[in-house]
Amino acid sequence: MFNKIRLWKNQNNSSTLREKIEEIKKLPIPEHVAIIMDGNGRWAKKRALPRVAGHHEGMKVVRKITRLSNKLGIKTLTLYAFSTENWKRPKNEVEYIMKLPEEFLGTFLPELIEENVQVKMMGYKDKLPVHTLHAIEKAIEETKNNNGLVLNFALNYGSRAEIIDAVKQVVSDCRSGIMNENDLNEEVFSSYLMTANMMDPDLLIRTSGEIRLSNFMLWQLAYTEFWFTEVLWPDFSEEHLLEAIKTFQNRQRRFGGV
Ligand code: FPP
């Protein structure tokens, strides 16, 4: 009897979610959503668990949000998983986070392939542990022909370093004659960034109540709509993503015009 009620409740909840998805899809969906997944540590602390338990729970949310993003027809989902500053964290925490791509992709890569998701990564690969890089590169290779959602992991990513490297490359290309400095414009400069060939995010979400960018996509977020929530990343649900998109749909984007 109780099982029947539970089943009915679940069906009822999921049909509500389905209805919400259909409703949201009637208006334009942001093509590129970027998320600063914050609050894993606090989520764990509230439960007297080690911080890494929060990261593990956060990894499960990555799966849920990826599936929904794909279903909604979002073209690119960029997730800030590890910044160039995060190496300052305790060694065990860094090592744990660096194991998550393997665990995530080890479990869900077949599902991502099945769902036509293309995995990408932006960030400095050279400092990543070999096992982390190997898992990511395997996923990139095995999903390279997929043309559904692009799941872009920002891993060992830092926007200021990215911009400085782009400037260095521009200078070098001008010196060697590959480029004329008069041809440099915003579009050309964008092509020197790690997001070359990727459109700028339409919507940025940051969880956990922090209202800052933390060195994330500083150039690319110039005209992005921001949505901040107090919700900690491990508690972030499909409903929250839909709420963020709904808010986005009610905003008027003017790109500097009137
Ligand atoms: C910030 O929360 C979170 C991170 C630095 C790590 C985010 C990583 C994941 C959500 C898992 C990624 C999964 C894959 C598959 C790569 P915090 O630790 O700063 O939280 P706090 O501010 O509450 O301490």
Write the layout of secondary structure elements.
Elements: H1 2-24, E1 32-36, H2 40-46, H3 51-72, E2 76-83, H4 91-114, E3 118-122, H5 130-142, E4 150-157, H6 159-175, H7 186-190, E5 203-206, E6 225-228, H8 238-249
Parallel strand pairs: 1-2, 1-5, 2-4, 3-4, 5-6
Helix pairs in contact: 1-8, 2-3, 3-4, 4-5
The chain binds farnesyl diphosphate.
Farnesyl diphosphate binds at residues 37-42, 55, 58-59, 62, 81-82, 86, 97, 100-101, 104, 153, 208, 233.
Essential attributes:
single chain, 258 residues, alpha/beta, 6 strands, 13% strand
Bound molecule types: farnesyl diphosphate
Output the radius of gyration. Answer: 20 Å
Low-pLDDT ranges: none
Q: What is the topology, as strand order, of the major beta sheet?
A: 3-4-2-1-5-6
Helix proportion: 40-55%
Average pLDDT taken over every residue: 95
The general outline is globular
Largest sheet composition:
6 strands, parallel
Task: Output the helix-strand order.
Answer: HEHHEHEHEHHEEH
**If helices are DSSP runs of H or I spanning 4 or more residues, what is the number of helices?**
8
Q: Count all strands and give the number.
A: 6
Q: What is the CA–CA distance across the termini?
A: 59 Å
Q: Pairing-aware structural class of the strands and helices?
A: alpha/beta
β content, as a range? 5-15%
Quaternary form: single chain
